[in-house]
Amino acid sequence: MKNFPENFLWGAAMSAPQTEGQSLNFGKTATTWDYWFQIAPEKFHQNQGPAITSGVYDHYLADCQRMQEIGLNSLRTSISWARLLPDGKTVNQAAVDFYRQYFSAMLDHGVEPIINLFHFDMPMWLMEQGGWENRASIEAFAFYAQTAFELFGDLIKKWTTFNEPLVHVECGYLYQYHYPAVVDFQRAIQVGYHTLLAHKAAVKVFKAAEQAGEIGIILNISPTYSKSEAQADLSSAFHSDLLNTRSFLDPAVLGTIPDELITLLRENQLLPEVEAGDHELIKENLVDFIGLNYYQPRRVQAPEEARMPAQMPSDFYAAYDWPDKKINPYRGWEIYPEALYDVAIMMKEAYNNIPWYVSENGMGVAEEERFMKDSGEIEDDYRIEFMKEHLNYLHKGILEGSNCFGYHAWTFVDCWSWLNGYRNRYGFYRLDLKTLERSVKKSGRWIKAVSENNGF
Ligand code: BGP
Fold first, then answer.
1. 331 in contact with ligand 1, CB cutoff 6 A
2. Which of 22, 63, 199, 309 has the fewest CB atoms lying closer than 10 Å?
3. Which of 116, 170, 244, 417 best tests ligand 1's pocket when mutated (most atoms within 8 Å of CB)?
4. Does the residue 455 lie in any domain?
5. In this predicted model, what pLDDT tens digit does every residue of 113-128 receive, in sequence order?
6. 3-state class (DSSP) for residue 365
7. What's the average model confidence in pLDDT over 211-228?
8. Which residue range is the domain that position 258 belongs to?
9. d(CA 391, CA 30)
10. pTM for this one?
11. Average pLDDT in the 99-114 region?
12. CATH code: domain of residue 206
């Protein structure tokens, strides 16, 4: 039996844009996802857009009951900025009513809400002004954060500012998976820098208001594993860590941007525009806790050719395909649970053993109806196995003193995934796309037992 610390959070994660639906109704204005789907629906798996998703806007009451039914004691979702402040300034009362009822219903069912402010869902009104490239986005986000803290602060005790800020930087400005789908390293760095400042500005507002509760940020993390001990590979791994791990984790927890990252950007003419006062904003305003999303390890090797100045991250490091890897063929991601132990030790040793939790971990599988029993239940033993393996390594890290306070699976009910629509399913509950009915999978019954026993 693996026992986890007292009051350990067992839960699931989701996001507003991937679950709410009613995407252009009840006062909500468009985000980049609504807009992109409108102009380029062919980019989206089976033309599945953000309009309906899992219909949580209408199903939230029964969903909160379902959370309790499978033993979840906590759940992370996000507020939609474009729903709460449709023009960035005016509060939408329908949104306030919805979120207050939703969060209250969670609490009524013994589920602690962890509420995130930005999950890749840039409001169109701000995108039209340049989105995160425009420095004005920092103040706009701080205003949104303050509004949310004031309206929901009596219900929410754990806030996070961003989910995986690196992802909207990379996907929007390097790899073309998110709107505006441009390829420009310099702009990507500026977007990342403004995102970091927006995070810091929100933390500042939170602390200034002497808000009850705690604030953190959710980062997608993997240690970087080098192909070999050769100097060139190790140096690539170091650069990968600087850009992918330390770029947000160091300033969030330690209040510093690594000197080596600044040097690397300077040498490659990639430094962002900086203003007086930024340094203090970054130095102060540290987080109370960290959420780490982990799905797959990052493995790198030295690139065969590197341009100077760099045009893309691949000029610093190339992906390394480990021949011995185990893979989830549906998502194409390597399965390497050992990394959760390495992450746990990294948090303990390099980040002052700050409280942290696994804010996402999970396995997306296509055509899960193949595993449906006569009773209608999806027998997702592969998912249970995946989570057990990861929890085993997490447990080992906790036993060695890492300050981890929870484990959240992605996700609660199968949800809509950006360009992948409903192809890969992750939920403890299956979603019927025609009726929006939810039915519990075997993993949902399993997590209930894990939560009740605080271990397995
Ligand atoms: C994380 C995101 C989630 C979710 C998950 C699964 O990076 O925070 O929003 O989508 O990945 O990934 P995908 O949906 O691409 O399969």
1. yes
2. 309
3. 417
4. no
5. 999 999 999 999 999 9
6. strand
7. 96
8. 9-59+72-326+413-423
9. 38
10. 0.98
11. 98
12. 3.20.20.80
